[in-house]
Amino acid sequence: MKKNADILYKSCDSHKELTWILHLQKINHFTTLPDEERKAKGFLTCIHTNEILAKWNRIAPHIIAVKDGKVIGYLLTMTSEASLDMPILQPMFQVFEELHYQEKAISKYNYLVVGQVCVAKEFRGAGVLEKLYELYGRAYSEKFDFAITEIAVKNKRSIHAHIKNGFEKLLIYETTECGEWCIVILDWNKKNRVA
Q1: Residues 2-24: what's their mean pLDDT?
Q2: 1 pLDDT above the threshold of 50
Q3: Beta strands in 16-167 (DSSP E)
Q4: For 2-194, which CATH class?
């Protein structure tokens, strides 16, 4: 597709890029989208600060898509240390502590968490998310056992997109504050065996 031409996929390495991530995040947060758009196109549930994104970026750089100097897509990276940075994430990390994968506790693995993914509306369906995940795998599959995250069950578009990109569902659980969540995992070793 022509939309995908001239898009640069790279690691985030500047304050300006972090600012663009926050801009994209704000306009795609569930509180700013109409109900119909949330259902049809997906939504974001967390809002980060520049300080938190910069801290995580120093540990494992975020993966971004840039066109004409603007971030038009991003894939945030987090390690388990992130549980201390945002209280809203603590229930997810607590579930990770209790969950097993291939008969081993998740906490015993060296895993990377997908902090959040977003593609600007005008670039959706153009393969941007796939390219972000390709670079993410190249950057981190040698350093981490797998990537894991949770997605709001109501966010069916995001769940579908993650399954399409090689994730598998591990668990659906419910919280009293935020509803149902689906934990998904991307096992790079399994994906490499299939490819």
Answers
A1: 86
A2: no
A3: 63-67, 70-78, 100-101, 104-105, 111-119, 146-152
A4: alpha beta
